[in-house]
Amino acid sequence: MSDAASLPFVTVISTGGTIARYSDNPCDTVDYAEIGQDLDSSDLLSALPAVVRARFRVREITFSQKDSSHLDMSQWAALACRIRDLLAENPDMAGIVVTHGTTTLEEGAFFLDLVLRADRPVVLVGAQRPASAISADGPANLHAALLVAACPQARGKGVLVVADNEVHAAASVTKAATYRLDTFRSPDFGPLGVIEGDEVHFARQPLGRRHIDSAVLGRIAHGWPRVDICYSYSGGDGAAIAAFHAAGARGIVVASMLPGMCAPGENDALDAVRAQDVAVVMSSQGSCGATIPRQDLRQRGIVAAGRLRPRQARILLTLCLAMDMTMERIAEMFDIS
């Protein structure tokens, strides 16, 4: 038997979500979120076979037991501070695994990637089926996440998302399917690596990583600038944009028609709020390709989101505004070059 001190030391932080839900009906893969029961981190680990658990030295921490649709930036900020402190206090720790609901996992991962500068891996993992379901995917995903967190080659790659035996960069991953197990995908360039058997294989490095000064965590913890997302559509008159402005939005992210276009009425409304110093970022509804800073957008003072999707763009814009960045600096943060 292996000496415990020689085993990879990994902390597992549970925040709730499908991976930590249990239903009395093993066929229930839909209603468990409302009628199921919560599990904590020890329950998740106990679902792994003993031979798997014996390969790691694991610390278990229950941070929250919430559906991820209930999480917000103040809670992600608290989570980031906890992760930062754990890494600083435990230099022998190989990495951290965060179990997280899949609904907002791509947002939580991107937030953490922006504010954490850890060289050791921080791995987010979830599940599409509750722990009680036939062929539940949580245990396999958790095992894969532990392998990645303990993998020396995962260092320096930022926050990672592990699902369905793939490793994704936080800035490129998105949830693409409602119930399918292969829901997490990186549409433009694919995953960073894969897990095959008990081995982690990386094929490339993350592209275009961004960082926000960690001082933002103190500001976000006490509230954040309002930033809304406006979904563009043919014939849109801009009423939603005006309503967001009236509600106090300091920033608006447009989920535009591809490749970054809005209806005339929406354009008029966007120009009106820009004249009132509201920051506007143009993203698109598509899952692939970038929103380019075309001449029209530059002339109107609108920032192009690059390859960030609307919900990710909202997080970055919120953090930029919380740090009182100028529009020029915000444009640099979104730049894909």
TrEMBL record:
One of its GO terms (biological process) is asparagine metabolic process. The active site is at T18. Residues 10-206 form the L-asparaginase N-terminal domain. SMART domains: Asparaginase. Keywords: Hydrolase. Pfam families: Asparaginase (PF00710), Asparaginase_C (PF17763). GO terms for molecular function: asparaginase activity. Residues 226-334 form the Asparaginase/glutaminase C-terminal domain. Belongs to the asparaginase 1 family. PANTHER family: 60 KDA LYSOPHOSPHOLIPASE, L-ASPARAGINASE. This is Asparaginase. It comes from Novacetimonas cocois. The lineage of its organism: Bacteria, Pseudomonadati, Pseudomonadota, Alphaproteobacteria, Acetobacterales.
